[in-house]
Amino acid sequence: CTKLAYLSDICDHFNRVNAIDKIHSLKKELGVWKRQGNFAMFIKTNECNLKYSITSLIVDNLTDLKDKLHHYFLNINTKDYNWIRNPFISIPKNVKFIEEEEFIDIKNDRSLLVMYNNAHLSSFYINVSKICPTVAKEALKIFLQFSTTYICEISFFAMLLIKSYKRGSFKMLDDELRGSLTQIPTNVKRICLSKQSQISY
Questions:
Q1: How far is it between the farthest Cα atoms of the chain?
Q2: What PANTHER family does this protein's entry cite (predicted)?
């Protein structure tokens, strides 16, 4: 019971990690949890009766997790990427001439500032790509590295539904998954107009 509760709690913490700042935070938290032996942040684990043998297993696991996080996510100087969070504050160092011009354009465009304040960061850069393609492309490259596992989980779930609905047929899986996962609303009228209706004889 306790091991399963701990597994559920630690997976919950990892599911919240979707940005480099949260990874740095989790690495430090793992060290604190291990050092203090305090598992108050593991709600389900605390509901179970914690024995010493389980506590030592949790501490060992936290040590391994911290080492693995350090191995996979080396210390990255996040200050180099502050411009992505707010391109209106400062122009990053060591940029190409075109990028510097685009940063100046962004920084002095009040309509972009309004858009920045009212839109999600990734949406902002998608819109900026029409005006300043080089800066937007660099920002979106960074965003793609930290996409959440949500799409992966939804894809797997959709694949299971398609498999059970189609009774195991995966011949058209790519097309069916694309239709299941898209965020673009279907234009039924346009689809119907593009198809020839069946004429009875």
A1: 81
A2: EPM2A-INTERACTING PROTEIN 1, LOW QUALITY PROTEIN: ZINC FINGER BED DOMAIN-CONTAINING PROTEIN 5-LIKE
Mark whether 168 and 138 lie in a shared domain: no
Residue 90 lies in a domain: yes
Q: Nearest-5° angle of CA 83, CA 89, CA 93?
A: 50
C-alpha count within 13 angstroms, C-beta hemisphere, residue 89: 10
Phi, psi of 8 (to 5 degrees): -65, -45
The total number of structural domains that make up the chain: 3
User: What are the tens digits of pLDDT across the range 27-59?
Assistant: 788 778 778 777 777 778 777 777 777 778 888
Question: Residue 172: helix, strand or coil by DSSP?
Answer: coil
**Torsions phi, psi for 194 (to 5 deg):** -80, -10
Alpha-carbon distance of 125 to 127, in angstroms, equals: 5
User: Are the C-beta atoms of 161 and 181 separated by less than 8 Å?
Assistant: no
Give residue-wise pLDDT tens across range 157-169: 777 777 776 655 6
Output the pTM of the full model. Answer: 0.46
Is residue 10 domain-shared with residue 59, that is, in the same domain? yes
Q: Containing domain of residue 173, as a range?
A: 150-183
d(CA 84, CA 78): 10
Tell me how far apart the terminal alpha carbons of the chain are, to the nearest angstrom.
68
Residue 10 lies in a domain: yes
